[in-house]
């Protein structure tokens, strides 16, 4: 059956405003170009779109905000369903849960939960979609205390390949519920999730920026602090080359800078003093190296964590890569700075080391296919192909960084941190991948959603950059 024969769903074709709206992606360097697209706002519309695609023999792909569009397979020849489900965030303060429709962003969840003194294990950017981040692992600024964000998922609502709605939780479809949580996708179209929340009284959060000329002593002191940091603190260190554009403070656009940002959690009011002491124990030795160019660390409520990372709010093009790293010794620190630091010629706008350990490393018996991360740091690096910086130059430099950090590379990745489809990915061992594959074959025997399966769910993938 051809697309022209399909009448059940209002599919948008290339060139139409509806198509452009449905295919819009935050990463402008990787716009999806499917055969057709639809924006679904109700579970019924999702069911109709899936049934239409099956009748037309079209594979189905799914996205919401498109932050990860560069990390997934091209959508050529598919029907792309953009999920923007209606209903809004529903908070149950007694059970400490939130029901979140697919397409909702983390900013909406954080602001809905904050009046109840509750928070979620959200990402650093408020515009990131909840579902993809969660089911791909989710590395939060609360994560050393809460673990991977996927562990907070209590239930998943989805439409499967037969066009039917299913709720998967610990009691109903427990095998599917296990596979959905970190299994790598390809099970259906998620229409909503229920997640657990946790109490928060205060958060000490923010970012400090220094000239990158001080990078080595700052990196050494930060590394030493991360080895003994309490789990209430999760931080990152970033080397940044920021352009002089609106939204970037002038002192940060005058040359490369090093940033240390993050959050220290105080679950109860009586924990606030300890949170201040923890932040001071990190920042004091760093401030002794040099006076920060800009310093925003301060006590605040949960919503303040959304502002700490200063991620761009508007869509941008970027090319990047991600690794999970073992503990960095002095040689590892030198390799990192040699590849991305001042004088390296790096075209990356941001190169990040995110602190792991703590609850991130703890396996959950009740968890899903992915419930823990065995690494000391997560590396993420990305840059925009602007002006003299070409796409190929960024790909080449990603390979350079990967080679420099190879002795400390664990060989694994976290799906929600992956930035390049052509880069190596691996997050499940063979036994877990096989078990996930059996569940996927049961719910999608004809591979309707096969294009949405993360490469790292089936073993290491090595391809040429697209």
UniProtKB/TrEMBL annotation:
<dbReference type="InterPro" id="IPR006094">
    <property type="entry name" value="Oxid_FAD_bind_N"/>
</dbReference>
<keyword id="KW-0285">Flavoprotein</keyword>
<dbReference type="InterPro" id="IPR050416">
    <property type="entry name" value="FAD-linked_Oxidoreductase"/>
</dbReference>
<protein>
    <submittedName>
        <fullName>FAD-binding protein</fullName>
    </submittedName>
</protein>
<keyword id="KW-0560">Oxidoreductase</keyword>
<comment type="similarity">
    <text>Belongs to the oxygen-dependent FAD-linked oxidoreductase family.</text>
</comment>
<dbReference type="Pfam" id="PF01565">
    <property type="entry name" value="FAD_binding_4"/>
</dbReference>
<dbReference type="InterPro" id="IPR016169">
    <property type="entry name" value="FAD-bd_PCMH_sub2"/>
</dbReference>
<keyword id="KW-0274">FAD</keyword>
<feature type="domain" description="FAD-binding PCMH-type">
    <location>
        <begin position="30"/>
        <end position="200"/>
    </location>
</feature>
<dbReference type="InterPro" id="IPR036318">
    <property type="entry name" value="FAD-bd_PCMH-like_sf"/>
</dbReference>
<dbReference type="InterPro" id="IPR016167">
    <property type="entry name" value="FAD-bd_PCMH_sub1"/>
</dbReference>
<dbReference type="InterPro" id="IPR016166">
    <property type="entry name" value="FAD-bd_PCMH"/>
</dbReference>
